[in-house]
Amino acid sequence: MGHVLARVKISGPLGQEQVELLVDTGATYTWISKDILERLGIKSKGTKAFRLMNHMIIEKEFGEALVEWNGETATTIVIFAEQADANVFGVYSLEGLALEVDPVVRELRKSKVQLAL
Fold this sequence. Notes:
- By secondary structure, the chain is mainly beta.
- The chain is 10% helix and 51% strand.
C-alpha cells in the first residue's frame, strides 16, 4: 500500500507543535517524541506494556494530548517515544478524529460514518 504521512498539531499546557506522523493502522496508540511532549508540558500518567514483533515486552510512559488534523480536534493517548522509536499516528487517535485511510490515494480522509458497536 505504501506509506501515509499526516501533518497534525499536538497541543499541551505549554503550547502546540506541528508534527509529521506515519499513519500506522497496526498501532493502537500515537507515539510522539518524548522531547516534543515534554516541551509541550504533557505529563506522564503512568506506563503501558507493549509486546514487540519479536515478542519482547517493553514499558513506555503515556499521557494525554490534544491532536488536530484538518480542523478536527480530539483528546488522545500519546506514548512518549524514544529517539529510536518511530513517530506514528495510531488507531486510537484516528478513530477519535473519525478518520480513515484511503489506500488508493494514500491519504487520510474524514469517515462518512462511524461504527456504532
